Amino acid sequence: MLISDMMQPAGRVFLKSEWGPINDYWPCVSFTKPSVGAWLRREFVPGRDVLVYVGTTSPASTENPDHRSCLLSAVVIEPNQILETKKIVPVESWNNSIEHHGDRWPHALAAIRAADILGPPYPEARRVMPKSYRSFSEIANRGNVIEAHPDERAAIMALEIKPLTLTLREGVAAYIGLRESTSPAIDKTIRQEASRMTQLICERVSRGGEQNVRINPQRFAPPFAEMNALILRLWLDVQRGKCALCRGPLVASTGNPMLKASADRIDSANGSYDAANVQITHLACNLAKNKYGQEQFDDWVLAVRGVQPETNSDPSPPRARGDQDLTYST
Question: Do 118 and 24 fall into the same domain?
Fold first, then answer.
């Protein structure tokens, strides 16, 4: 994989001097002057552009000699909101930074994609992008983000990388999820289906205490926007467009009620609609599993696929009628 795979061919390549590669210790792009963040908010477009970390020359700030003056990371940032660094990085990282450097990097932008540039040895900035690297020494550019020289973009974009998954604090992950859920890059019909399922979940949660309390568990769900972001993440990233039960393709727009997408609580005794307890299924699969049990449903799926199921298994006990309330409303 190359840096060019993280951006569009005509995208801009930004450069920032850093003490080391991006990682879970410091999973964001931070800076001293809020003007740097304001500039990136105006100029950086996620999906189009990329920001590359360049190791500093200072042994005091870049302790690992393998990192000094080298190209270390490729990052895509979320530029729409400048955040407090202490709310993004782990608490121990922030406390350690304050102890050794003071409140030097109070502002930050969250990273939504990141990759390690392959190394060591890491590509030397002087060799890959000599013109751009020299510009870091200009007084006006100290502490700022700069754009790569046009003559050197291709060489930077051709660098090999390894994708990196960052561990983000809960609030940051939720914010990024909210932003991604409104992305025009997501198919409109999928966004509509996610919104429909989310609305039904919220309605069911609001009715949780009104009736059938002795049959159905009290339900809990995050606010609409967060729930909607979760549904989209399940559909696109976790299940990759497949029904969680039969593994057939989910259909975003259909007049066939059997194929309609349904948000199913994995453990019906657990009333929480959270990432650990929600999956997206076809409505028909949801109904069949709820009425006949998981084992009977699995046998049916095998038979449909032309695989002979075991015929001597005991039927799974059907669920209580009150638990079959996922039919049209979740």
Answer: yes
Residue 73 and residue 152 in one domain: yes
Which CATH number characterizes residue 59's domain?
Answer: 3.10.590
CA distance 112 to 99: 28
Averaged in consecutive runs of 10 residues, what is the pLDDT profile of the chain (330 residues)? 94 95 94 91 92 93 94 92 88 93 91 92 97 90 91 97 83 64 78 91 74 51 80 88 94 92 90 89 94 90 85 51 36
